[in-house]
From TrEMBL:
This is FAD/NAD(P)-binding domain-containing protein. Keywords: FAD, Flavoprotein, Oxidoreductase. Residues 1-299 form the FAD-binding domain. GO terms for molecular function: FAD binding; oxidoreductase activity.
């Protein structure tokens, strides 16, 4: 897979030209449909060690801060008179990126000896003593020594390793990007123009050098947790349904939500934990191995971190 996991893995192998690497991606181009992503210090150090710092910093609004900085401001917002109840300070704050920018940067650093095969959707793999045979939807087949399955939460590679699957958490998230310039004209002085904030279950932060405001508005029906999902995992939403879900919230929230032109709605899924992520010749990476709910903003960070750890351990 050519997500953040697969690409980081390919970049991390850049000093191993003796290994033939093939990266198979189902889409016809390497792209991301998600929007913003928070990168915490440990993940950042790894991205730095891969030589990506300069290019990634160029996409940040204020560069990368090294001191203790405001990461998130937490507000109670589900009422008209909202208030701040906590400010989280961390080393470096909480650098927030556009996913596509991280992915583009990784892509530029993928070593030349890694062959990228687009439009290759893995549908099945067969593991034997000394190889893995891959079958793709386009009819192609390939036998490899080792498969690193970084194919996301609905991993095909995972089918070869005992697991209890994934489930719907009962939470959905409306997501959208608001061009900051337009928003600033409409609502000068709005809190999000200055600081990133978490409002109860709405997460807001600037990305792409502050050109966009990334909004993720979570809503949960606890009774639906674990139930089968009877609609697409990602769908287009309407402004009306978003506003209905958050009616009665403080004005700044309503201003944000009503400024998302084309909201999408994502069903949040989780995965039952697995006893092992590896079999003889298959290793799972990222969401394929340990998909998690996004509330700590740590899924992609965990992918980057676990990959590097594995590679360094193997080297030793
Ligand atoms: C609303 C939301 C907000 C989030 N915010 C954050 C955050 O702030 N910080 C953070 O660290 N994490 C965050 N996450 C989690 C993060 O998005 C994931 O953990 C991360 O994208 C996982 O990367 P991955 O490479 O393992 O999988 P993916 O990103 O899913 O990539 C998998 C790739 O494999 C390809 N693929 C899939 N199946 C096949 C197949 N059969 N054959 C070939 N290719 C295939 C896909 O097309 C894709 O390119 C968030 C998640 C959500 C839902």
């Amino acid at each position: 897979g050519g997500g953040i996991g697969g690409l980081t893995c390919a970049v991390a192998l850049k000093d191993c030209p003796n290994i033939e690497i093939n990266l198979y991606e189902q889409a016809h181009q390497i792209t991301e449909i998600g929007a913003g992503i928070t990168v915490w210090p440990r993940t950042w150090e790894i991205l730095q060690s891969l030589g990506l710092e300069e290019e990634l910093v160029a996409t940040l609004q204020d560069g990368f801060r090294k001191d203790q900085s405001l990461g998130f401001e937490f507000r109670i917002s589900d009422r008209k008179d909202g208030f701040t109840f906590h400010k989280l300070f961390t080393k470096g704050g909480s650098p927030c990126f556009h996913r596509q920018e991280i992915q583009n940067t990784l892509l530029k650093h993928v070593p030349e000896f890694c062959h990228i095969h687009l439009s290759h959707r893995l549908i099945r793999c067969e593991e034997s003593e000394d190889s893995v045979k891959l079958y793709f939807k386009n009819g192609a087949e390939k036998t490899v020594d080792v498969l690193i399955a970084a194919d996301g939460i609905k991993s095909v590679g995972r089918e070869s390793i005992p697991n209890d699957g994934i489930f719907y958490t009962g939470t959905d998230a409306f997501r959208g990007l608001i061009p900051k310039e337009t928003f600033a004209q409409l609502y000068p002085g709005h809190r999000t123009l200055e600081d990133p904030i978490i409002v109860s279950h709405i997460v807001v932060y600037p990305i792409s050098r502050g050109r966009f405001i990334n909004v993720v508005a979570f809503f949960t029906s606890l009774e639906n947790e674990g139930k089968p999902l009877d609609r697409p995992e990602i769908r287009e939403a309407t402004k009306e349904e978003v506003l209905k879900e958050f009616s009665g919230w403080e004005d700044e929230v309503i201003q944000l939500l009503s400024s998302i032109e084309k909201p999408t709605c994502w069903a949040i899924r989780d995965q039952y934990s697995m006893k092992t992520y590896v079999s003889r010749r298959i290793a799972l990476l990222g969401d394929a191995a340990h998909a998690m709910r996004p509330h700590l903003g740590a899924g992609a960070g965990q992918v980057v971190y676990s990959k590097l750890n594995d590679i360094y351990t193997d080297d030793q």
